[in-house]
Structures are given as structure tokens and as C-alpha cells.
Amino acid sequence: MRLSALVARDVGIAMREGGALGTALGFYLLVVALLPLGLGPDLNLLSRIAPGILWIALLLAALLSLPRMFETDFEDGSLEILALGQEPLEAVCAAKAFAHWLTTGIPLALAAPVLGILLNLDIAAYGVLVATMLVGTPAVSFLGAIGAALTLRARRGGLLIALLVLPLYVPTLIYGIATISAALVAQSAFWPSFLILAAVSLGSLVLGPIAAAAAIRIQMQ
Amino acid sequence: MPPILRFARIPGFRPPFGLRSAQPLSIPLHLRALELAVDRGGRPVLDAVSFQVSRGEALLLTGPNGAGKTTLLRAIAGFLAPRAGSLALTDAAGAPLDVADHVHYVGHQNAIKGIMSVAENLDFWGGFLAPAGASDRAARLEAAMDRLALSSLADIPAAYLSAGQKRRLGLARLLVADRALWLLDEPTVSLDAASTAVVAGLVGEHLEAGGMVLAATHIPLGLAAARELRLAPRTAIRPDEVAL
Prior knowledge:
The complex is a heterodimer.
Chain A: H1 2-17, H2 19-39, H3 43-65, H4 68-75, H5 78-83, H6 89-118, H7 126-150, H8 158-165, H9 170-185, H10 190-220
Chain B: E1 28-40, E2 43-54, E3 58-62, H1 69-77, E4 84-91, H2 99-102, E5 103-106, H3 118-129, H4 137-147, H5 163-176, E6 181-185, H6 193-208, E7 212-216, E8 227-230
Parallel strand pairs in B: 3-7, 3-8, 5-6, 6-7
Antiparallel strand pairs in B: 1-2, 1-4
Helix pairs in contact in B: 3-4, 3-5, 4-5
């Protein structure tokens, strides 16, 4: 219940500030809106590449808010006190990554179908798209926590986070898109890729907080 | 030791829920440092520091800027791993305790969120730091704000507080959860005379209740019985530094 208090605090702060989510959603919208302008109004081409574009733009939009995950707590000294609570630092990192998923991953995943209209996404793919994003975005937050923790003391660490974290998102991206493509071909082909996508997220739920906590201990020295 | 538990030797690592005992925490009796040496950024800051603090005792850390007062407090809190020497918090049976369970650390920063109100900030820390099942959370919050003259500011976003008010809010954390060992880094910075007296009173009461206090301070805090550990800036050069 201490961890739920921490999640509630982080979600509350994100709601009150609003800036991070607004930036991420705005960035997502703009990237997706720019692509048809650059590629021309070929509806067949757009609908074929729509799942990939929506996923890649989601990853980039989520990256924008990653630096904030630990930065403010580090700067105002809260992170040190969080490390002295009754909960292990790994659990604190997990709670903060979970709060990031609630405030960034879910809104971006829910915005994706709206943006799918801009890309002439196949109507049959909408449900699958949201399902893969809801299941895949925990990996974005929990693996992103590693990058956020590693770059805590780096000035202008945002770009560094992208270099560190984007390669880790490759499995999520591949299986997210593979699930959508497979589901469009045959309903039964949905599950194998989808379950691997879920497995990647589950693995990151475990590994992300452990690695992030180890990085934070080094940063606090 | 089975391989998986070797993690337990990493400084600062705390076993996850399942591996921690559910028994109530025992009360710390002594904090002992023996020949403690701590480096910062590869440079030795503390060398061969030894002291012992027992229940009801305070230790004032004094010394010029850069002498290592903050470094020592951070090493005790577990943020810095000592290069050499030992540091142990033990209970009456002599068993070592996890410092993180028993320590209040008030550093240079106040751990305040500007966007949350004074009461919300303090209530969060009360909930986070207090042991499970503590039922008097609301009463303690009230008492802590009252004691540090924050009651009239309870609903104001903490961003609008003055430096001294922020410091008081940071110190109020000491009262919302019981922790035996207080590590205070310049606790009276930016406080006025009246608030300084309140802090001195809090420290005195904590000692009477059997707590321990280590404070880096230039102000005596009105503690007649407090011992002083004078840290000198390190000037001697270790043999292995000469090569640099």
C-alpha cells in the first residue's frame, strides 16, 4: 500500500502538471500526421505501413517523457528518501515505471486508433492494434526506466536515453507489428506473436526495475 | 551462502518482500564506525574515522567546508559505499540491523514536491516511511505540522513556501514516522531563531526517547551532553596517490 501511495502521487503530479502527457500526445499526432504529407496520398501504401508507423511513432513519443521519470525526484532529494523507505529500491522503481505506463503508455495506446484514421488503417486492425499496444507498452515504460536511471546525472540526457533504450524496444516493435499483420491474414495467427509480445513485457517488468535500481544506487554515490 | 544471496553483499541492496522477515524491527542500540574511509570521485575524503553512538546520544559533526561531514552522513545512510573500515548499526543482542529501516536522513534538499500542498507532501512521507499498520497517521501529521508551525500553510502548494518554510517542511518528516537514527545535514540552514529552537527541542526529545542523532552543524543545537567529532580536511597523501 506504500507503493500504491507512490503510484498515486506520481499519477497525481502528472495529471496536475499535464505537460508531459500533452507533449507526448501532441508529438504522436504530429509525427503521424506528417507522414502522409511526405509520402503522398497513396491509400494502399499508407494502410500497408500504418501499423509500423503507429508503433514507431508511439515509441518516439514515449521516449520524450522518459527523462522525467526519476529526474525530478533525484533533483529535489525525494529519491534518497524513497531509497530509505521500508520498500526495496527495486519496488520503488517498479512503482514509478508503472505510474509512467499509466500516464503515458495507456493514453498513447488509446490515441493510436484515432491516428489510424489518418493512415487509412484497415478497419479490421483497430482492435488488434489497441490490444498489442496495451500489452506492449509496459515494456516501453519498464525498459525505459533503465535508460532514465542511467542518465540521471547526464546533462541533456534525453538523446542519450534514446540511444540506450531504443535498441531494447526492438523485440516489442517486431512482435507488435507481427501480431497486427498476422491477425489481418488469419484470425488464428494472432496468438503466437501476441503471446511473445506479452512475454517480452513480462520479462521487462522483472528486469527493468532491477537494472534501474542498480543504476540509481550508482548515481546516488 | 547460496549464490543467489550474494546479492545481499552489494551495498544498499535490500532483499525483496518475500525474503525479509515479517517480525517487528528491533530497536537499534549502537552505531559504530571503525577506521572508516570513504572516497568521493576517486579522491579520499574520509580516512580512519572511528566513533560510537549509543541510544540517547548525539554526535555533532564539525569541521570546515569540505571536511567530509556530508560524506560521512551519506555513508551512514548507505548512499556511499566505504572504501575501508566498518560501519554497523546493532541492536541489544549485537545483531546487525539494516540502516535503511531505522534512519531519517535530512540532507541539503528537502524532498518536497512544489505542485503538492504542504499537507500532501508530509502525508505522503508519513505513509511511505512509517511501518506497516501504523494507525495514527492523521494524528501524527497534525502534530508534526503544529510543532513546526506549518498548520496555517497546510493547503498551500509547497512551491510558494519560503526557504525557511521549506526547510521546516523537510524537518517535519522526522515526526511523521518513528526512526531511531536521525542523520541531519545542516538542519538549521535558513531557519530563524525561533525555528532553530524548535529543532533543538525536537532533537532533545528524540534523545530522551532513546534515539540517536548525528548532525552536521555549526550551531550547538543546545545539546549540553552532545559529543563532537571534528573532521579535518584531508591533506595527507596516500602512497598510491603519488603516482598520479
